[in-house]
């Protein structure tokens, strides 16, 4: 048998770490040292490949979970996502080392639910109709067609093996752009490059209609775009029906080619990647759970509107009655829900925390305008975390409108000024350790670059010296108030906070505001996290709006200048501490890459 490399993991790295016996949490103990030693692009591709949100489309299958065959990269996060949704999964992959790596993960994340086999030929050693579902995933980071299952296992073989449903995740030969494998970076094809690719496609690529025809023997196909690219998609978008839809927000309307392409019906022609689901006709499992939810809540109209694959490994189903676009509504509507479904063990814990904080804080902090918690429980075998869907747009859609971003920052500051939960008192050693010391020490350990670890510890010692004895209040702390977690009104005014999975009942003031201002500066100006941080630290570099918001919050919280400056200097440590507290596993040298520490 020809040995197939375990890309995107370099073979040499995989073998070194597979040779190590690992006690305790074997997968995390393996993964973090592996990632930190890999070349950056390989590490990025591996992290994207591992995301369980890759399996968000599985909620659209009509059948109940049973036995599934997955043909593709054994490391794909789709595998544990299917297991989390109740499927028993058989994985076939041509790379032995990739199977061995994935086995360590799946024993921990999905014990007893996943089996792994090395793929050795085009005809698989399973009888006809052996599976309720077969999946072939071609569009995956670092999974080139040259050593991919798509070059070995044909759609006709998939049709032979399934007794009910088949799914093909594949690339479009007519795609206008491609993900590069580095987070957030895409390569747009010029006219000549696009024409060459259209005329001479890469092996395994076809148009949407070609992919759908290849599964015709299984049953009627439902076709979805994985947008913007299967290697890094955030939305599952219906191509045969108007929903689930892809919104074109206020910011995107300035992109005339995109708007006109969508109006002319070119989205199915040019979208980079697809998920083609061939199955008997019927309501999806997700829609059945939404129907049951409507009965439980006594509401009608809760139909799937948008399906989001979140970076934090959940599927977010946004609902609305037919014909209603909640972005254009002035208030909540019946049947408008935000439904979270965890696709990883870690995310299940964060969503439980999110729902708990919503229940406790919805009435206590009216200025935050939090969504109303509606339901948590199991329907159709899916564990749902449900809240009322807020109308309007997230703040990501106003980053090119200076007056609106200013209004957002100022009105958010007014809301943050109301969140005090403990009166000001001197910060002692014990409180410092509980709030800051332990989490920043964890950051120092997880950086795994000796010079960066030493730098983090020096900054921690300096922060301790500057804050001990200072009089500070404590506040209800969102911890992740980026633009995508903040709703705004038509004029940019703060209209509600989302996603309380990282929230803490008591923390230091100023941090939420710094997080918002830093992210807004980064998005508006297209700068790095480090550049945004350095600008906020300097009074001369801060904008008038940033200065005004910082001073208003400082006055409301009764903070001395020394405290504000200390928190500004320590901002990277605070962000990294929040991240390490909530991530399933550490991103290698993240604080070094983002902030230059």
What does this 3D model show about the protein?
By secondary structure, the protein is α+β, with helices and mostly antiparallel strands. It folds into 3 domains: 11-278, Rossmann fold (3-Layer(aba) Sandwich); 285-388, Phosphorylase Kinase, domain 1; 393-595, Aminoglycoside 3'-phosphotransferase, Chain: A, domain 2 (Alpha-Beta Complex). The protein contains 21 helices and 21 strands. The strands form 4 sheets. A 13-stranded mixed beta sheet has the order 3-2-1-4-5-10-8-9-11-12-13-15-14, sandwiched between helices. Strand 6 (177-179) and strand 7 (186-188) form a beta hairpin. Helix 1 runs antiparallel to helix 2. It is globular and about 70 Å long.
Percent range of helical residues: 25-40%
Please work out how many helical segments DSSP would assign: 21
Low-confidence stretches: none
Amino-to-carboxy terminus distance: 46 Å
CATH homolog superfamily of the largest domain: Vaccinia Virus protein VP39
Number of strands: 21
Which structural class is indicated by helix and strand composition?
alpha+beta
Lateral strand order in the biggest sheet: 3-2-1-4-5-10-8-9-11-12-13-15-14
């Amino acid at each position: 048998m020809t040995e197939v490399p375990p890309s995107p993991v370099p073979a040499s790295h995989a073998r070194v770490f597979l040779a190590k016996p690992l006690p305790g949490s074997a997968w995390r103990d393996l993964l973090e040292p592996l990632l930190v030693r890999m070349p950056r692009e390989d590490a990025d591709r591996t992290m994207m490949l591992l995301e369980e949100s890759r399996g968000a489309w599985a909620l659209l299958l009509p059948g109940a979970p049973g036995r599934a065959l997955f043909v593709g990269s054994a490391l794909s996060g789709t595998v544990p996502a299917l297991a989390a949704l109740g499927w028993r999964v058989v994985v076939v992959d041509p790379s032995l080392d990739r199977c061995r790596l994935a086995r360590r993960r799946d024993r921990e994340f999905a014990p007893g639910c996943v089996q792994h086999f090395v793929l050795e030929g085009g005809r698989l050693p399973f009888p006809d109709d052996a599976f309720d579902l077969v999946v072939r995933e071609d569009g995956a980071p670092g999974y080139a067609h040259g050593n991919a299952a798509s070059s070995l296992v044909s759609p006709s073989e998939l049709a032979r093996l399934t007794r009910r449903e088949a799914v093909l995740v594949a690339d479009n030969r007519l795609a206008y752009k491609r993900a590069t494998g580095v987070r957030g970076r895409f390569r747009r094809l010029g006219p000549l490059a696009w024409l060459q690719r259209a005329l001479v496609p890469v092996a395994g690529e076809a148009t949407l209609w070609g992919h759908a025809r290849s599964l015709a023997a299984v049953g009627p196909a439902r076709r979805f775009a994985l947008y913007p690219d299967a290697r890094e998609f955030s939305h599952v978008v219906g191509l045969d029906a108007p929903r689930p839809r892809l919104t074109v927000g206020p910011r995107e309307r300035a992109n005339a080619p995109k708007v006109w392409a969508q109006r002319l019906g070119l989205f199915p022609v040019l979208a980079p990647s697809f998920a083609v689901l061939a199955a008997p006709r019927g309501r999806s499992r997700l829609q059945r759970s939404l129907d049951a939810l409507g009965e439980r809540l006594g509401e009608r109209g809760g139909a799937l509107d948008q399906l989001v694959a979140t970076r934090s490994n959940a599927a977010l189903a946004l609902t609305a009655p037919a014909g209603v676009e909640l972005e254009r509504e002035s208030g909540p509507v019946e049947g408008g829900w935000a439904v979270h479904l965890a696709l990883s063990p870690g995310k299940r814990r964060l969503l439980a925390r999110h729902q708990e904080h919503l229940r406790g804080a919805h009435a206590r902090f009216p200025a935050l305008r939090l969504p109303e918690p509606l339901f948590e429980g199991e329907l159709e075998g899916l564990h749902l975390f449900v809240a009322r869907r807020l109308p309007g747009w997230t703040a990501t859609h106003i980053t090119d409108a200076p007056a609106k971003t200013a209004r957002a920052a100022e009105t958010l500051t007014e809301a943050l000024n109301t969140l005090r939960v403990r009166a000001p008192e001197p910060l002692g050693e014990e409180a410092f350790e509980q709030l800051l010391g332990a989490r920043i020490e964890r950051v120092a350990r997880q950086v795994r670059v000796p010079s960066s670890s030493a730098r983090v510890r020096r900054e921690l010692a300096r922060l301790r010296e500057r804050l001990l004895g200072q009089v500070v209040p404590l506040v209800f702390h969102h911890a992740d108030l980026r633009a995508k977690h903040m709703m705004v009104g038509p004029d940019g005014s703060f209209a509600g906070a989302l996603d309380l999975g990282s929230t803490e009942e008591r923390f230091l003031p100023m941090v939420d505001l710094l997080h918002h201002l830093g992210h807004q500066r980064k998005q508006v100006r297209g700068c790095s996290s480090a550049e945004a941080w350095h600008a906020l630290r300097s009074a001369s570099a801060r904008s008038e709006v940033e200065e005004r918001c910082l001073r208003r919050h400082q006055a409301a919280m009764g903070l001395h200048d020394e405290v504000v400056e200390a928190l500004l200097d320590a901002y990277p440590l605070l962000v990294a501490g929040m991240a390490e507290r909530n991530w399933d596993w550490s991103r290698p040298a993240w604080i070094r890459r983002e902030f230059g520490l």
